[in-house]
Design brief:
By secondary structure, the protein is an alpha+beta fold. The protein is built from ten helices and 17 strands. The chain has two domains: 185 residues, Trna Endonuclease, Chain: A, domain 1 (3-Layer(aba) Sandwich); 117 residues, no CATH class. This is NERD domain-containing protein.
Length: 374
């Protein structure tokens, strides 16, 4: 019996050892898995933090000329000054086809009233601006450096002619003198010489602020009220023509617009998304032909996102192809989202900034909205 008891105790001990070994192994696997998941989560959060610190403005300044970057910031600030003026429509970042050169010409801003269409070039230069003998504009900095630019006024006049021709090809004949080119010198440190400022189309700071208040502000509102009381005046468009013109400008080619965290805006061309294959499949609905606007909704839950990859929601608005001449009813597809998808936050927007040849990537964590031209 003693020998049998010892055998049973030995067998029981071996079973307990094997059980303990299995439990220890399972515990080690669990701990290793938790530590690995934690390390991966920390690495992902570290990537997100680095992405947030490496703001896209740095990339813009590296690849886009400083003057161009300053000009685009000025365009956004100036356009906000025109918002809310009664009867004024604003269109930005148009790219009008130039059939002769087989390319597109950029127009910073269009200001449309019932009397004029102002084709605006926004210049944010500092220093002294002189008209050179060859017609170019020479910009002289305080440090003695000089940059020679093309004649900005002649360039914007040429683009105004192209725009008028483009509008006529799409069915609206504008009255003579309706299209007005304008150059806005918006930097208070800009000192243009008289040979430049004597041109009525060139508005330095003291002039363009008067233009904003007088030509587009109170006086224009008074003119609009007077026209409501009587017949249409010479040089003005009819209500139908104005409606058609707004439709033409709204559907004209333009740069795509990327709005980032902090109110920063980048103008350029959307090239697509880059990320995991499953996310690319989910974003197939977000194509230019069907979508005009994408909103990026960030899910703020750091505790939850510590153990899983952070997600963002991409919501698409359908492109509105309704013609300006037709009295279309408001349809469901133009009110509700065309599609939406939840994707990993490490998905990138691939974007080529206007004025550069380099394609850049912006993380969805930095993106608020993306507007796509037709």
């Amino acid at each position: 019996m003693a020998r049998g008891d010892r055998a049973r105790r030995r067998s029981h001990h071996l079973r307990r050892c094997r059980s303990c070994s299995a439990s220890a192994m399972a515990l080690r696997v669990l701990v290793t898995g938790v530590l690995t998941a934690g390390a991966v989560a920390l690495y992902r959060q570290f990537q997100s933090i680095i992405s947030a610190l490496m703001r896209p403005d740095q990339y813009i300044l590296d690849t886009e000329r400083e003057s161009d970057h300053a000009g685009r910031i000025a365009e956004l600030k100036i356009s906000s000054l025109f918002e809310g003026i009664q009867g004024l429509k604003i269109f930005q970042s148009l790219r009008i086809p130039d059939p002769g050169e087989r390319q597109r010409r950029d127009i910073d801003m269009i200001l449309l009233t019932n009397r004029n269409l102002h084709v605006v070039e926004v210049i944010n230069w500092s220093g002294t601006i002189e008209l050179s003998p060859d017609g170019s504009w020479a910009q002289h900095y305080r440090n003695g450096a000089t940059i020679h630019h093309p004649n900005i006024l002649e360039e914007i006049k040429g683009r105004a002619v192209l725009l008028e021709s483009y509008i006529e090809r799409r069915g609206v004949i504008l009255p003579p003198g309706f299209v007005q080119p304008k150059v806005l010198l918006v930097n208070r440190d800009c000192r243009p010489e008289q040979a430049i400022t004597i041109q009525p189309e060139v508005l330095s700071v003291d002039k363009w602020e008067h233009f904003l208040d007088h030509d587009l502000g109170r006086m224009e509102s008074k003119r609009m009220k007077s026209t409501l009381k009587g017949p249409e005046q010479e040089g003005m468009l009819s209500e139908l023509e104005m409606k058609q013109l707004q439709y033409i400008l709204r559907t004209a080619p333009m740069w795509d617009r990327l709005e980032l965290e902090g109110g920063r805006v980048v103008i350029g061309e959307f090239k697509g998304f880059r990320g995991h294959r499953k996310d690319m499949s989910r974003l197939e609905f977000a194509n230019r032909s069907a979508v005009s606007h994408l909103a990026i909704i960030h899910q703020q839950s750091w505790i939850r996102n510590f153990f899983v990859t952070q997600k963002v929601q991409v919501v698409a608005k359908a492109r509105d192809y309704r013609d300006a001449n037709a009295n279309w009813p408001v349809k469901k597809q133009y009110e509700e989202p065309l599609g939406q998808a939840s994707v990993d936050s490490d998905t990138d927007v691939v974007f080529q900034t206007a004025g550069t040849s380099k394609v850049q990537q912006f993380g969805l964590l930095d993106v608020l909205t993306l507007s796509l031209s037709s």
